[in-house]
Design a protein that fits this description.
The structure holds 2 protein chains of 2 kinds. Chain A contains 13 helices and no strands. By secondary structure, chain A is an all-alpha fold. The model of chain A has no long low-confidence stretch (mean pLDDT about 85). In chain B, helix 8 links the parallel strand 7 and strand 8. The chains are: A mainly alpha, B alpha/beta. At the A-B interface, helix 1, helix 8 and helix 9 of A face helix 2, helix 4 and helix 7 of B.
């Protein structure tokens, strides 16, 4: 087990290196630079700024310097938010995104699994069709449509919930979490339904029925674990996507999350900020996949014997 | 005995399908008394499993049962689902065919057993665990306490089936329904399970409804039997009566189709192999020349010829084998369990020797995991052998380039086990059979190809008019014929059949065996026949090679080995086969206790068979027995002489 984790972490290093390299040169290929604004800076000032951030050096040298700093855990200063380091910005943005994304993941799992199970048990019945229709809608309607509609209904018309901002209470989280969770609920419900129907047809479920076990026992002890396997493989990338923040949701609800920093950073050619967040994302995705693989081992005992 | 335990009265099963209602079982009536064993016999699609599922109320959602199934007077068909559920697993338990899929792979053995027990009995978790361990011990599962914490995939097939049976017996049911419980198992393991069921009835008076296609099992285990065909009861009565004098044609056919150990073997090779033989005309073209090749047609020893210097084995003399293998070994390197561990090595085949001559069939037999398929693949270089020399038609296969190897392979064609899986479902029968031609004779015109395909289909007894159809439109037996036609269309010198009939029903199996025997005789083919069914091997093979854990135990003339096996393993295999004769000695009852096959990763020292061998002594642990020639065959056993005396 420990050997497996160590090997996976070691495997991640080259992946991250490729990511750093590609991202580094891609952002620099984009036209413009961090100090291009509508009002041009005096040439001397810009020259000094570029020198201060080593942007006047040849690109390969900059790359080596960046990777060297990275190896020491230094993401460098932000070009845009001049008094902050990239590390600090991530430390501010990530908790916000993490809280909303984590809650959305939880909601998505609870609602998705329940809906999917009900649909599977009532296969081709009214409940099944209703659940799957809701799921289809959740997948097809984009977030930027759902979010304003929710705001319109719950904040403007009914006045139950704040329309945006971080606020102090949990009320501010409800709408962003709902918006984020909705498509995930739909995916998870569909996956759960499909895999549970498949599992309920397997010979070992027939054995359990031949033992006289009632349906709820069969579901809980015999069917649930195997039915979760496909859901789990979807969950790895989905979880990483959720907790690193959604640009759209953060923008609409005015939340200072990581997603917003990423987009503004990219628009402003804030090289170090973009790089920092890309690497952070990459590491998180690798971590999520590792967690999923470990959970596989717990779910499916045969997976351990590889 | 006033009231029978189970009474079926006009039990019928219908399924609602898109094409309308389908009747799987037409009015089945029979009785089963307390402690009796009733054999429900039939081929696939005969409705025997559906009958069992109907009794338990486990039919698929679109299935409906009608009629009555009275269990101690209560009609199970009319019983409310909740009451039937309480009865299932308690008074009536069921054991399914495939213990691999019928146990939950995600749950520990103990958890599965305890769920079943605590559904029907109010016992503490502790007591339930003890009861499960006790039951495992009762069905001779070794080390039961530890097994409870294992997952099904960590057990062998035989152990899994014992776990299934133990789970079914937890509540001491009055009736056990066993649906082909030994079909997926090796003969030696099957013998152990049958012994267990017989003992169960003896000691606990459990009645058993035994569903099977194997008349040998029925003969040895059951009191009465019932033959089903296409959902109808064809014949029923006491086993001894039915087997001694079947009244219907179908029962007679079924009985005649059962391959038997005591049957005469195939006609001797000399008849088929002689150059002046009656039907050599069917072998034409370059292949025939290659077969007749140096040495055969001319009668001159091949060793002297040109271009055969490296190829032929000097020991074989004038009659050069079509295929000859010497010292073939296959070792697999497995993935390391952790980064710093040495990679485990699995010796799948160790130092195997074989020769197959023209017109001769060599059978390779052994339990699953014995390496018989690996050996066949290695001699064709489908798996690269780690050591050894293989000569096909006078040409060594070693060091051949990819193109040469492919050219040589046209002389050796394969027939596979699963007739459906071996045919591409998207190709027509014509294209499937024509495919080898497009590889090896690309210059052939379209009409010529069709003509060859037509010929090949006729040779295997298929109507060439079916050429445009697809595999799913054929039965298993017909698909296997297509597979054989595809192998024969190139007119190979060697046919390698890997369990070609084990997926087929008995009557179909008998037809395919007859077909293989016929084409071999007509074409003077050399054949390598891999099977776990010793009776089928007896019907086809001139010589046999018995394998165990990758090692050759005994090899030589089939007739001699079947009459008088000299290796204790061969004897155990033969004893384990249930004999079909009513009243025949139930040889499997006395068969050597079928212990677990040792792990091939850590085979026993010395003789690999010693852990299961009744004759094993200290010498067997210390010294690997070298093959010795005894009574006209090679035997790798230190005690073969004594064994011969004991027989």
């Amino acid at each position: 087990m420990l050997g497996f984790i160590v090997r996976r972490v070691l495997d991640a290093i080259p992946t991250l290196l490729v990511l750093v390299t590609v991202a580094f040169f891609m952002i620099r290929l984009a036209p413009g630079g961090p100090f291009d604004a509508e009002k041009r800076l005096p040439p001397q000032v810009e020259q000094n700024l570029r020198a201060a951030y080593h942007l006047d050096e040849p690109l390969p040298l900059q790359f080596v310097r960046y990777v060297g700093n990275l190896a020491r855990g230094d993401f460098g200063p932000s070009f845009q938010y001049r008094d902050r380091t990239v590390t600090e910005l991530i430390a501010i943005g990530f908790p916000v995104s993490f809280r909303i994304g984590g809650l959305a993941l939880l909601v998505a799992l609870l609602a998705g699994l329940s809906l999917g199970t009900v649909a599977a048990l009532r296969q081709n019945g009214a409940a099944d069709h209703a659940a799957m229709a809701v799921a289809m809608a959740g997948i097809s309607v984009p977030t930027f449509v759902v979010a304003p509609l929710l705001v319109l209904l719950f904040a403007v018309t009914l006045g139950w919930l704040p329309a945006g901002g971080l606020g102090s209470g949990p009320a501010n989280l409800v709408l962003p979490v709902l918006t984020l969770a909705l498509p995930q609920v739909a995916y998870i419900a569909r996956l759960t339904r499909g895999s549970l129907i498949e599992v309920l047809r397997s010979p070992f479920i027939r054995t359990a029925r031949a033992q006289g076990l009632p349906l709820h026992t069969i579901l809980r002890y015999h069917a649930l674990k195997p039915a979760l396997v496909p859901v789990l493989s979807y969950l790895g990338p989905a979880a990483a996507g959720l907790i690193t923040g959604s640009v759209v949701v953060e923008q609409i609800f005015g939340l200072p999350g990581l997603g917003r920093y990423f987009v503004t950073g990219a628009l402003n050619r804030d090289y170090t900020l973009v790089m920092g967040i890309v690497i952070f994302y990459g590491a998180l995705i690798i971590l999520c996949n590792l967690v999923v693989d470990l959970l596989y081992g717990w779910l499916d005992p045969r997976a351990v014997q590889r | 005995m006033s009231q029978p335990l189970l009474e079926l009265d006009d039990l019928a099963v219908r399924f609602a399908t898109r094409e309308g209602p389908v009747t799987a079982l037409h009015g089945l009536s029979c009785t089963l008394g307390e402690g009796e064993i009733l054999g429900l016999v039939g081929e696939s699609g005969s409705g025997k499993t559906q009958a069992a599922l109907a009794i338990l109320g486990l039919l698929a959602a679109n299935g409906r049962a009608s009629g009555q199934a009275r269990f101690r007077g209560r009609d199970l068909i009319a019983l409310p689902p909740a009451e039937l559920q309480r009865l299932r697993g308690d008074r009536i338990a069921m054991v399914f065919q495939d213990p691999m899929t019928a146990l939950n792979p995600y749950l520990r053995i103990g958890a599965q057993m305890q769920l079943a027990l605590r559904r029907h009995r109010r016992v503490s978790a502790r007591a339930a665990r003890d009861a499960c361990a006790e039951m495992l011990a009762a069905v001779q599962v070794t080390d039961p306490g530890r097994r409870l914490d294992m997952y099904p995939h960590e057990l062998s097939g035989g152990m899994r089936q014992r776990v299934m049976i133990a789970t079914a017996l937890l509540c001491k049911p009055d009736l056990l329904i066993a649906d082909e419980p030994t079909t997926a198992l090796d003969v030696t393991v099957q013998a152990g399970i049958l012994r267990l069921l017989a003992q169960l009835r003896r000691e606990h008076g459990t009645a058993i409804l035994f569903i099977t296609h194997d008349l040998g099992i029925v003969a040895g285990l059951c009191d009465s039997m019932l033959v089903l065909r296409q959902g109808r009861c064809v014949e029923q009565g006491p086993v001894a009566e039915v087997l001694a004098g079947p009244r219907t044609d179908y029962a007679r056919e079924l009985l005649a189709a059962v391959p038997r150990l005591d049957q005469p073997g195939p006609p001797p090779v000399s008849m088929a192999g002689s150059a002046a033989g009656p039907v050599t005309g069917s072998v034409t073209g370059p292949v025939a020349a290659a077969i007749a090749g140096p040495g055969r047609g001319t009668g001159i020893d091949t060793g002297t010829g040109t271009g055969t210097g490296t190829g032929t084995d000097p020991a074989t003399g004038a009659d050069a084998p079509v295929l000859s293998a010497r010292g073939v070994s296959v070792t697999f390197t497995l993935p390391r369990p952790h980064p710093f561990a040495p990679a485990p090595r699995l010796q799948a085949v160790v130092d195997a020797n074989l020769d197959v001559r023209r017109g001769e069939t060599l059978g390779i037999v052994g339990e699953s995991g014995s390496g018989k398929s690996t050996l066949a693949r290695a001699v064709l270089r489908l798996i690269p052998p780690t050591a050894g020399r293989v000569v096909l038609l006078g040409r060594s296969l070693q060091g051949l380039g990819a193109a040469d190897l492919r050219a040589q392979r046209r002389h050796a064609q394969l027939v596979f086990q699963d007739p459906f899986a071996a045919l591409d479902p998207r190709l027509t029968i014509r294209d499937i059979v024509a495919e080898p031609l497009s590889v090896f004779e690309p210059s052939l015109g379209r009409d010529a190809v069709t003509e060859r395909v037509r010929q090949a289909l006729e040779d295997v007894g298929l109507d060439p008019a079916a050429m445009g159809r697809y595999p799913h439109q054929f039965s298993g037996g017909q698909c296997q014929r297509v597979g054989i036609a595809r192998a024969l269309v190139l007119e190979p010198a060697l046919l390698v059949c890997d369990e070609p009939v084990s997926a087929l029903d008995v009557t179909v199996q008998a037809q395919v065996v007859r077909l293989l025997a016929r084409v071999q005789r007509e074409r003077g083919l050399a054949m390598l026949f891999i099977a776990h069914d010793l009776a089928v091997v007896r019907a086809l093979c001139h010589r046999v090679l018995v394998m165990y854990l990758g090692r050759t135990m005994e090899s030589g003339d089939a007739g001699a080995i079947y009459r008088e096996p000299r290796h204790p393993y061969t004897r155990a295999l033969l004893q384990a086969v249930p004999a079909v004769d009513a009243g025949a000695a139930r040889s499997w009852e006395s068969a050597t206790a079928a212990l677990e096959l040792p792990s091939p990763l850590a085979p026993p020292s010395g003789c690999v068979y010693r852990t299961r061998c009744p004759l094993a002594t200290r010498r067997c642990a210390d010294e690997v027995p070298a093959p010795r020639e005894i009574a006209g065959r090679l035997v790798a056993c230190h005690h073969a002489d004594d064994a011969g005396l004991a027989a």
